[in-house]
What does this fold into?
Amino acid sequence: MKDDKDLTEKVIGCAIEVHRHLGPGLLESVYERCLAFELAAANIQHETQKEVMVNYKGVSLDLGYRTDLVVENRLIIELKAVDQIMPVHEAQLLTYMKLAGISLGLLINFNMKWLKDGIKRFVF
It folds into this structure.
């Protein structure tokens, strides 16, 4: 979908702006706050630390899962600040996407010299 591509491009642009100013080496929470600032400045609707409910046998349970960012109720962003993305990080994002019923996701690792090397897009 063109709209999804446009949205991910705008979000990636905001993430690159954050990385350009801060570089690698900080905590995920710092990148989350700064990315939320950039999204707000770009008039992109988003929520931080949105709870993800687990539906178990027809009962919705709040088990403490939180997404880093949900953008326009159709994109989940999982932020990392690690040496390298591991399969468990990808699984985490895919699980959040499944639980939230959102088919689009970005995994962004800010601990990279070039941010473009730390971005993975997922479509569920």
Observations:
- The chain has one domain: 2-123.
- The radius of gyration is 14 Å.
- The chain has a mean pLDDT of 96.
- The first strand starts at residue 46 and ends at 51.
